[in-house]
Amino acid sequence: MYKVSEFSKICGLSIDTIKHYETVGLLYPSYVDDINNYRFYAATKIVEVQKIQMLKDAGCSLKEIKYHLDANITAAELTHLLEEKIETMSKKIEQLKEQHNRLEVNYFILNNGGMTFMNQIVVKEVEPIWAVTKREVYDETKETFDEFCERMWNSLNQVAQEPRTISCMSIYYAGLFVHTEKPIDMEVVEPLASKKDRNDIRQLPKVKVASIIHVGPLNTIGESYQLLLTWMKEHKYEISGGVREIYHEGEWSKDADQYVTELQVPISINS
């Protein structure tokens, strides 16, 4: 569960926007503390935010978004809706280019296999993050990859020294997702809620990313990455940094089918 301040950072929305979405009946907290009225949000609520953002990018008003969500809009109906919006927005492409591209993301997915709402692609700005990290290149002659990952996380957890409040992540600089011909170069990251007076932390920079939410076991995440990569090529984006694999709901959950993992790929325009 995330506090509203943590949830707002994960979703790239202001706290006021999240509260407004609750007021108009679009997004409700998973749990409200009866004593202090604090609101908490489960990882699955990220999927609901993606739905709202997708329809908002299509030019729908909040009233229209509520109507579509309450009516459980089908993939076919959504595809038809997006086709109409694309035609309209194409006439204003110079002024609305960024919004138009995001709309095409959703049309691309729905028109190429009818993917679920959980697999939508969003382009967003990720704010800087203070974190404790450990980076190492995997040597397959010394241990298995599972052993390598376990050792890295155990080592990091020993120095993190505080409860985790923000989703942990792995960043792959080579060997997996990118530069696959090289050994795996991985950094494990435990984000901090704020800057600490410590010498062993660093700040992950602000970055523009293409993001996709993968729901299910990690051994199938490659399918979501390939979908994201295909879309990036279609829209002339290039990878411009290490790929982030963020674990919103992971192995601490009993059901692997309910894992919620976000892939964030730093992007730049291929000129």
UniProtKB/TrEMBL annotation:
<protein>
    <submittedName>
        <fullName>DNA-binding transcriptional MerR regulator</fullName>
    </submittedName>
</protein>
<dbReference type="InterPro" id="IPR047057">
    <property type="entry name" value="MerR_fam"/>
</dbReference>
<keyword id="KW-0678">Repressor</keyword>
<feature type="coiled-coil region">
    <location>
        <begin position="79"/>
        <end position="106"/>
    </location>
</feature>
<keyword id="KW-0805">Transcription regulation</keyword>
<dbReference type="Pfam" id="PF13411">
    <property type="entry name" value="MerR_1"/>
</dbReference>
<dbReference type="InterPro" id="IPR011256">
    <property type="entry name" value="Reg_factor_effector_dom_sf"/>
</dbReference>
<keyword id="KW-0175">Coiled coil</keyword>
<dbReference type="InterPro" id="IPR029442">
    <property type="entry name" value="GyrI-like"/>
</dbReference>
<dbReference type="InterPro" id="IPR000551">
    <property type="entry name" value="MerR-type_HTH_dom"/>
</dbReference>
<keyword id="KW-0804">Transcription</keyword>
<keyword id="KW-0238">DNA-binding</keyword>
<dbReference type="GO" id="GO:0003677">
    <property type="term" value="F:DNA binding"/>
</dbReference>
<dbReference type="InterPro" id="IPR010499">
    <property type="entry name" value="AraC_E-bd"/>
</dbReference>
<dbReference type="Pfam" id="PF06445">
    <property type="entry name" value="GyrI-like"/>
</dbReference>
<dbReference type="InterPro" id="IPR009061">
    <property type="entry name" value="DNA-bd_dom_put_sf"/>
</dbReference>
<feature type="domain" description="HTH merR-type">
    <location>
        <begin position="1"/>
        <end position="71"/>
    </location>
</feature>
